[in-house]
Amino acid sequence: MAYQTMTIPLFSGMRTDLSEGLLKLDMSPDAENADTRSGGLCSACGFSRAVPALVPLDEHLERMTVYATEHGNEYLAAAKDMLYRYDANANLWRPLYQFERDVTGEHMDFLKVRIGTDDRLLLVCGSEPMETFDAATGYVEEFGTEEKQSYRTMRYAELYFGRLFAAGDPTAPGRLYWSKAPGGGRTIDDWRSDPASENVSGGFADVGVDDDPITGLFALSNQLLIFKRDSLYRLLGDRPSNYRIIAVDAAFRQPLHTACVRYADRLYFLTDDGLSFYDGQTVRKGASHRALEPLLKRADLYGVRSAVCGDTLYFAIRSRHDAPYNDIVIEYDVLRDRYMTRTGFTVVDFCTVHGTLYALTGAGKLVAFDDNNSYDGAPIHVRWTTPVTDLGRKDTNKTLLRLTASGSGRLGVRVESDGGTYETQVRLSSVPLGVTEIPLRGVGRVFRLRFSSVNGTPFTLNAPLTLLFDQQKRP
């Protein structure tokens, strides 16, 4: 008998693009709903209802937002033909605005603005002129006027150096508009030129060519990014007299504007080619941008939604083309450069307000992620699979004997080897500094372990873990 031990030093992230034999033991080729930020393995946090009532499901849900005002949060949800507002007094969602034509989430957005001294939520839907929501009155009103040259149909809007920039005009798809500089009686709903000075005037510029339409606008600290269908530009300068629109020389897959999030003055975006970011000069790919490539190639990213909360980026995608809503959430921990996936719920849209991540589910629930140990009552099923390993010796049989671990809760353990499969369940010691020994069975040249929750109940598995096995050379 040649007893040996193997240590799993920590739990890190998920990676599916490499052969399992090339992965380190801290990485997983198959995991979901796990939290590894501490280095151990535990159930991911869940969510609770932010509002009790369900959004009406008469039409396909498209977008949502939480509009923070001085009097509290306003909750809005958009379907194809209707914008709803949550009425806390009556605990129901009331119709707020009827769209003249159906809207799609990919051509709709919300933006907090100030018009003069009034705070508003700008509604950009892509199918009709922009509107504003006034939380004080509870009404939706037209944003601009024909006289001010701002009563236009737009798909994208962004604030940059105090001005409102907009694009997506169906009559001029490559045109970028900007408002007057606010102040001195000027407001961002006025896009006209101003005889006082070019530098306070509104205006527009044609970016590239019209057969390459603008598909997104994103402001960084010192530039405005202008995504087009086949190219990328950036606007530099803080006033019209020094505006420069420059093409960015970078080869990348063009993202939907709903797949883009800002973090630390970088713009991250997800496509089926992986996760990329704009660093202020050009588009780059991180060292592990292909980590979930097989998953992304199978998935449908047309309805992708994204958000950032703390140091984590969230992207919701469809697992298949015929899924009605996004049913996989990809989490990317920027500081650790690690990925994880979540399943068990659907996502219409995300947003983050005051450090809380909100989501609208396909079931019409508007939820807030918190320390709940369930997805609003639905169990959180956790799975973590170690990569297949032969411990560098395919010429030996490994007889798995015992796993020594610490933690809390009930844990499911599965051993898979070329010699068969063995499963067991154990309750980890709840005694402080307690250690649990888990007897195992399994003989094979290669093997993997899978740790999982039992019936969706939460657990914590501390790192490191020690595996005792017997290794014998094959005849």
Number of strands: 43
Shape: elongated
Q: Helix content range of the residues, please? A: under 10%
Would you tell me which CATH topology of the largest domain applies? Methylamine Dehydrogenase, Chain H
Write down the overall mean pLDDT: 95
Stretches where pLDDT is under 50 for at least 5 consecutive residues are: none
Head-to-tail CA distance between termini: 15 Å
CATH structural class of the largest domain: Mainly Beta
Number of domains: 2
Q: Major beta sheet, specifics?
A: 8 strands, antiparallel
Count of alpha/pi helices: 1
Structural class: mainly beta
Structural notes for this entry:
The protein is an all-beta fold. 1% of the residues lie in helices and 48% in strands. The chain has one helix and 43 strands. The strands form ten sheets. Strands 2, 3, 4, 35, 37, 38, 41 and 42 form an eight-stranded antiparallel β-sheet that branches. Strands 1, 36, 39, 40 and 43 form a five-stranded antiparallel β-sheet that branches. Strands 5-32-31-30 form a four-stranded antiparallel β-sheet, with no helix packed on it. A hairpin with a 4-residue loop joins strand 18 and strand 19. The longest helix has 6 residues, at 293-298.
